[in-house]
Structure formats: C-alpha cells, structure tokens
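Input.
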Amino acid sequence: MARHADPVFCPLGLDGVLVRFSRVLTPETNATAHAFCDRAKTAAIKGVTELASSLTSVRIVFDPDLTDRQSVTAALRELLDDLQSADTSARRLWHVPVAFSPAHAPQLAEAAKLAGLTPDQAVAEITGSVVRVLAIGFAPGQPYLGLMPAHWDVPRQSDLTPSVPRGALVTAVRQLIIFAADTPTGWRQIGQSAFSVWRPDSATPFALEPGDAVQFSSVSDDTLRDLQANTDTNGGARCEVLR
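Output.
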C-alpha cells in the first residue's frame, strides 16, 4: 500500500485520540484507516481499551490510570511505517440476496434517474459491484458500503421517509446501507434483503466488519419471502473467507 500523507493526531476528550487520515472519503483513505486500526489492535498498546475505525479516521480510547495521551500518541506514530506493506484486501466477501421489485424497492426508479440510469441498469450496476464496508454506525451493526461510481453521488431526500424495514437496501452519496432495524431515513430505498446485520443473540452480534466486501444478487419476491420465513440462513447471506 502506498504511503499517504501523515495523519493528523487530535485529542478527543480526556481519554481519547483521533487519528484522521483525510477529510475526504476515498477507497484508499478508508482502507488505510482500517489497516491502521488492525495494526493498532495487534500492537496491544499499554492502557488502550478501545479502538474503532470510521470512514477516514480511527478513534483510540485509553485508561488514564494506566497511561497518558503523550505515550499513546507516540506508540501510535511508531505504527505508521508498517502501513506501507499492509494488506488492505478484504478478508471476507459476503454474498447477499436482495429483491429489487417495485414492492420492495419503492424508490429505485427515482434513485436510478438521479444517477442517470434506468432501473434495470441500476440493478445491474449494484449487483455487478463489489463494495466494501466503509464503517459501522448509526445503529448496531449497520454498515455503510461503497463506494459506488461517481454518478451514484445522489443527494439525500429533503424529507424523511417515516419508516423503512430492517434489511432494506438504501442509497445516497455513492454509498449503500443495509438497515439494522425499522427506522425513518432520508436515504432512498432501492431494495430489500432478509439479512440481519445486527444479531444480538449471536456470539458475533455484528455480522459485518469494517473492510469486509459485499456483493448483492437479485432475487424474486417469492425467494425473498422464503428467505424471510427461514430464519436459519440469515437471509441467505453467504460469507466467503478470502484470506
């Protein structure tokens, strides 16, 4: 991986450090943030209690009784050289079935038009793309996926949709989200899965992890209903281990 400009180290509260690699989201800066977070976890820095990556940054929390900000920051800076040889390829590829019929994709035509596509072209691009989990947030286990091509840089709606269902596939600003729960949103619903990204009773409550790859496949309404009825398959999602 090519070396990016040195990140900015920012104090975050009384017990945190934010390592920001860029103010602009790109696949490269997102991959760098994930790689740095993984490296910091492996390093097991004294006093660090939590690490979490976001779109272009990593949050590090430490115990002030065990260490201090200066020591943590110095240890984090020592990890930067390792990023040049870090493997940023996806460890896992998820295959997720999605229904794109009007009944389950009420705003697909609108989103496609904004992207300069027909609905069929939009579905072909969505299912033909392998997107990465850029971040987990807003709701437990909820993934922000991307980046889609530049013509998918469509704005959020000016008004909220009162509610879209769990498993809904929505889009805005070159990203896709699989909703973790029924919720209002300003993003446009373009599909429906039976995939539960948040499984509170599981040993691994978050199905997806930052850096995972995801590819969607198109299924019929009947197939979606079968997947929703069969809770043993988690919506027919299949995880392929890549490395």
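Residues 25 and 68 are 30 Å apart (CA to CA).
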